[in-house]
Design a protein that fits this description.
heterodimer, A: mainly alpha, ABC transporter involved in vitamin B12 uptake, BtuC, 16 helices, B: alpha/beta, Rossmann fold, 6-stranded mixed sheet, nucleotide-binding (chain B), ABC transporter ATP-binding protein (chain B)
């Protein structure tokens, strides 16, 4: 009745439904009306063109950070350092954006490439440490997040500016912002970055599934011993996988730096774009299309949630709980799989 | 006749296939009863039915003459049925005793009475001559000992009927002998044993009766003392089986592989190959005989580029290939059938089709300027699957889902297809059933007859004697003797492998 493939598609969908249901129960328990609550959430994400634009704006970096995590996982690596790679990407893009004055055809691509390169470099460090010394990438990437956060702050304050907490705005020639998109969505911060994000999803799919390099990367991820036996260089592929993953993350930073904000302010804590990427990748089953869909869901929940306090009196924290519940149900996919198989057995 | 276990006309279906059909297995008290069948014939399914892991669609099970319904393994345990799994279920960092009592610990107040448990384990161990140290940690004891812990686990839970799932697959020849003694002493104490296996030699040696199943069908039960290995093999496979592969005398030509004064270190940085010399010529099979751990694995790894050498040279066609990258070695014309097919031979989570191009994926026609054509990959895979009789639902099936024999056939297909000059085959038939062994032996001889050089490493003396044109005996990192298979026998080889020189062995 169900093939493996349909089961793999069913699991995230059921997880989302279960997450939303449990969210409804929690709303009931605390005396809120779940129908009104979810209604407000829907309104907040799609209710008018401004909200829709903001949702897309939020989805954009999620797609890229999700791709970063998914790419690493597909090659057998757990990149917890997407957050840090987002920071360095953001910094690099803004730096290029404020430091030069060039024609747009050069300036914008340059700023974007700088972000990808910075993210790739931030991924290269844990990559080479793992490949050459066997240091576990999880530990290194976690620490690299902090290094990225504080280094970025220091550079913003003391190198790019003179003691300010925020850089100048980037030159228009490096900006992804679009008056056309903004006007269409009632002056939301939606920008052209969504096109880059969708294109990169295609790139990830192409690299992993269509190129011989992707074949190698996946092979090394699944079985480094057999890959070595087959003549592939395990360490080269580990480093490369971390760099590509980091580049995706760096681009997520560029989306914020060149699109949403146009500047970089020193931050007291993480943006969470990178950490949400882990959840997005998990929900999207590490596939390009899955990541895009999951990023949309997360964006809708995040932006829609902003309307829940005013629309239905439900606190935003509750939406965080619903998101956490969805992730919980995806993570316990084993349980859902078991139920599906049991259902399948009895249905026979 | 009193049967302790009766499984009558059992039928078990899975979606799309019938795993067991009309199988009857009747085990007498105090006998060792063999359950014989090829890989994938349905032996494990049948035993899982008996152990309560699966429910049969048809048929009934009787234990001590009473009809029972075994709904889960706990019921099986209560009925006195214990299973010694092929893949041990032990906690590495726990002691022997802790593993044995796990789940049914004797208690003293709130804590586990480990003293009492140790005493009980020691008593049981002594009673059946198992010789297990109750306080040893699992990670510190050998595989053979770990298996005895598994046996003790079932005995501790009061098992009267022990199911052994291919127990000898992981053991050395010496450990196999000891296991046979243990099984005999278990039977003497009134236990009954079901031995799942596809090794005919073991059945002839220890079993009283043997039930054969083939492709899920029950074929019948025979008394072991009224049969012979040939009959058993043909019952199992469904046709006549040749044990000694027919082959013409070899006509060796140019020297293809030459190893000179080779030194290789292992992972612990200890020299395992110590000044080894070896030649393999076109059109011959050279067998390496030796007891495991005398540097054979390191030699193979050095030849195939997986391990760096310390000194000395490996040359193929006058070209030095030692210390080249694995890819360069592969490109220079060497194929390698690795010892551990799961760890080295296959990416188990890749489709079997992808595994067929594991070394050639970057070459035309599979890849053009870095972009792969999976159409071409799967075309090639389908051809190889057909040619090498790999039984798989499709080329898209994950390698993991294939049986051991079919995985090995796939590896062999892939390696032969590159038209190598030298084939390095390390334990090519390990853990396979007679049908697959026969197929692989025939293929290796075919390759030899095409004028390729074959280096065969095996711990099965039968295989070495049967296939090789020349046998190199390895001891302590060196080839200490070269003999012709027709001029030697198992006794002489055994002595040589233990380090006796040719003269001494000849004198005895």
């Amino acid at each position: 009745m169900f093939t493996n493939r349909t089961i793999n598609i069913l699991i995230p969908i059921i997880s989302v439904i279960l997450g939303l249901l449990s969210g409804a129960i929690i709303m009931l328990v605390f005396g809120y009306n779940p129908v009104a609550g979810y209604g407000a959430l829907w309104e907040g994400a799609f209710g008018d063109s401004y909200f829709f634009g903001e949702t897309i704006r939020m989805v954009t970096p999620y797609i890229l950070s999700g791709l970063a995590v998914a790419f690493a996982l597909r090659t057998g690596l757990l990149n917890i350092g997407v957050e840090g790679q987002v920071f360095v990407g953001w910094l690099a893009s803004v730096w290029v954006g404020v430091a030069f004055d060039l024609p747009m055809a050069i300036h914008l691509p340059l700023a974007i490439i700088a972000a990808a390169a910075a993210g790739a470099f931030w991924g290269f460090i844990p990559g080479i440490l793992k490949a050459k010394l066997g240091v576990h990438e999880v530990i290194v990437t976690i620490m690299m997040n902090y290094i990225a956060l504080y280094t970025t702050n220091a550079i913003v304050r003391h190198v790019i500016t003179d003691g300010e907490d925020q850089t100048e705005n980037i030159a228009d020639s490096a900006s992804l912002a679009s008056t056309w998109l903004a006007e269409m969505t009632f002056y939301s911060r939606m920008h052209y970055g969504i096109l880059i994000a969708l294109f990169m999803a295609l790139v990830m799919w192409f690299i992993l599934n269509k190129t011989s390099r992707g074949f190698e990367l996946r092979s090394v991820g699944y079985n480094p011993f057999a890959s070595n036996y087959a003549g592939m260089s395990v360490s080269k592929n580990i480093i490369l996988a971390m760099m590509i993953s980091g580049a995706f993350a760096g681009l997520a930073g560029a989306m914020e730096g060149l699109g949403t904000y146009g500047y970089l302010a020193s931050k007291s804590g993480f943006t969470n774009i990178g950490f949400e990427g882990i959840a997005v990748a998990l929900l999207g089953a590490n596939t390009a299309l899955g990541v895009v869909l999951a990023a949309f869901l997360f964006g809708i929940l995040k932006i829609g949630a902003l309307n829940m306090p005013t629309g239905a009196g439900v606190p935003t924290e509750l939406v965080e709980i619903v998101i956490a519940l969805i992730i919980f149900f995806v993570a316990s996919s084993y349980m859902i799989r078991w139920f599906i198989l049991r259902f399948k057995k009895e249905g026979k | 006749m009193d049967y302790i276990i009766e499984m009558l006309n059992i039928r078990k279906e899975f979606p799309g296939i019938v795993a067991n059909n009309n199988i009857t297995l009747q085990v007498q008290k105090g006998e060792i009863h063999a359950l014989l069948g090829e890989n994938g014939a349905g032996k494990s399914t049948l035993m899982n039915v008996l152990f309560g892991l699966y429910q049969p669609e048809k048929g009934q099970i009787k234990v001590r003459g009473e009809k029972v319904k075994i709904s889960d393994p706990n019921v099986a345990n209560r009925l006195g049925i214990g299973m010694v799994h092929q893949h041990f279920m032990l906690v590495d960092t726990f002691t022997v005793t802790e593993n044995i009592v796990l789940g049914s610990e004797p208690r003293k107040g709130l804590s586990v009475d480990i003293r009492k448990a140790e005493k009980e384990v020691a008593d049981l161990s002594e009673k059946y001559g198992l010789n297990v140290d109750p306080k040893a940690k699992i990670r510190d004891i050998s595989v053979g000992m770990q298996q005895r812990v598994e046996i003790l686990k079932t005995l501790y839970r009061g098992a009267e009927i022990l199911i052994f799932d291919e127990p000898t697959a992981v053991l050395t020849p010496q450990e196999i002998k000891e296991l046979i003694v243990i099984m005999q002493s278990l039977v003497k104490e009134g236990k009954s044993i079901i031995l799942i296996t596809h090794k005919l030699k073991e059945i002839m040696e220890v079993c009283d009766r043997c039930t054969v199943i083939r492709k899920g069908e029950g074929i019948g039960t025979v008394n072991v003392n009224e049969t012979n290995p040939n009959e058993l093999a043909s019952l199992m496979v469904g046709r006549e089986v040749n044990f000694t592969t027919e082959k013409q005398p070899s006509t060796p030509k140019d020297t293809y592989l030459s190893v000179k004064d080779l030194y290789v270190k292992d992972v612990r940085n200890v020299n395992m190959v110590k000044g080894l010399n070896l030649e393999v010529r076109a059109g011959e099979i050279v067998g390496i005989a030796g007891i495991d751990g005398n540097g054979q694995s390191e030699l193979i790894e050095a030849i195939t580029g997986l391990r760096k050498t310390e000194s000395g040279t490996v040359t193929l066609h006058d070209k030095v290939i030692s210390n080249l990258s694995t890819r360069k070695v592969t490109q220079s014309g060497i194929s390698h059938i690795p010892q551990d097919r799961h760890k080295y031979g296959l990416v188990l989570d890749f489709p079997i089709g992808d595994n067929m191009v594991l070394q050639t994926y970057y070459q035309k026609p599979f890849s053009n300027k870095g972009v792969m054509s999976f159409k071409k990959v799967y075309e090639k895979a389908r051809n190889l699957i057909k040619e090498y009789d790999v039984r798989t639902p499709s080329e898209m099936t994950k390698a993991r889902a294939l049986s051991g024999g079919n995985q090995q056939k796939a590896i062999i297909g892939r390696e032969m297809d590159r038209s190598p000059d030298l084939i390095v085959a390390a334990q090519p038939t390990r853990g396979l059933d007679v049908g697959a062994i026969e197929f692989i032996h025939r293929k290796l001889i075919e390759e030899r007859d095409k004028g390729r050089a074959v280096l065969l490493l095996s711990f099965e003396l039968d295989e070495i004697l049967n296939l090789s044109d020349r046998i190199a005996v390895m001891f302590d990192g060196q080839v200490i003797a070269e003999v012709k298979p027709e001029e030697t026998n198992e006794q002489e080889l055994g002595l040589l492998m233990a380090g006796n020189s040719t003269e001494k062995a000849g004198a005895e």
